[in-house]
Design a protein that fits this description.
Length: 274
């Protein structure tokens, strides 16, 4: 069975690096000092590189170039920095190819960054209290696509899978379910279970593509992530089609669509200015 194959693949993943274990311990502390987080991440070149790249991206538009990890942490905030760090390490362990999707690793990075920034901007307006809980899953929600791509390649179904996505009749998530019986959000949750990351993170992600199955406790977070994932659609992030579908979904879920539309326009303007 494909679910058994998935779980075997997840179980065979290498453990999280020591840096992420230390970050997870730091994240659980009630009182956090920026200097301590800086000491942890400054020893990891990959995390520092990703952090500076994101801090200097058009989506933030800081006036001067961000040249040190300490300044990046100060500008982006502790929780956003933690999200970037976990994302960078996860990608290092998982990233292979997205060829069956007709996508590249750059497509993944671009979509992930758009999703996390949109999460920060939108939640800042509608619910500041859960903003920090949403940024990380928004950034990593599609990382399960790497395992799905590998499974599709292993079954030698790349052409059929890619053609079905290019056809555009079904959403990417519907194509994933048709071929394997589950979507990338579900796969991402299984990866995080294996790595023993926060249950809150896992439960928010697992049923994003199957809202009817999510528990009441995590329903609102899953709906928020579903809207964000739609806007940042890995195939066509911030496209007219993606935005329209997200607005329809947001209205169905009971969110203020005017606030969402305004936030998306603000994000698009930021990107267009640079």
């Amino acid at each position: 069975m494909q679910i058994d194959d998935l779980l075997r693949r997840v179980e065979s993943l290498p453990p999280l690096p020591r840096t992420i274990i230390l970050i997870e311990e730091y994240r659980r502390k009630s009182e956090k000092e920026i200097s301590e987080l800086h000491d942890i991440i400054s020893k990891d070149a990959l995390i520092v590189t990703n952090l500076l790249k994101i801090a200097n991206s058009a989506m933030f538009g800081f006036r001067s170039k961000v040249e040190t990890p300490l300044r990046a942490i100060s500008l982006l905030g502790i929780n956003f920095t933690i999200s970037v760090a976990i994302s960078a390490s996860s990608q290092k362990l998982l990233v292979t190819t997205l060829a069956p999707y007709g996508l590249t690793n750059d497509n993944f990075m671009n979509s992930s960054n758009i999703a996390s920034v949109l999460a920060s901007l939108w939640l800042g307006k509608i619910d500041e209290s859960i903003k920090d809980e949403i940024i990380l899953p928004a950034l990593l929600i599609d990382i399960g696509k790497y395992i799905i791509a590998d499974m599709i390649l292993n079954e030698q179904k790349e052409k059929e899978f890619k053609a079905k996505i290019e056809e555009g009749i079904l959403s990417i998530e519907e194509v994933e379910k048709e071929f394997l019986g589950f979507s990338s959000s579900f796969v991402t949750a299984q990866i995080f279970k294996h790595w023993k990351l926060s249950p809150n993170l896992i439960n928010s992600i697992e049923f994003v593509d199957d809202i009817n199955s999510v528990s009441k406790e995590f329903e609102r977070k899953a709906k928020i992530l579903s809207v964000i994932k739609t806007v940042a659609n890995i195939k066509e992030p911030l496209s007219e089609k993606s935005i329209k579908e997200a607005i329809i979904k947001a209205k169905e879920y009971g969110f203020d669509t005017k606030i969402l539309a305004q936030t998306i326009e603000n994000l698009k303007t930021k990107i267009d200015l640079y």
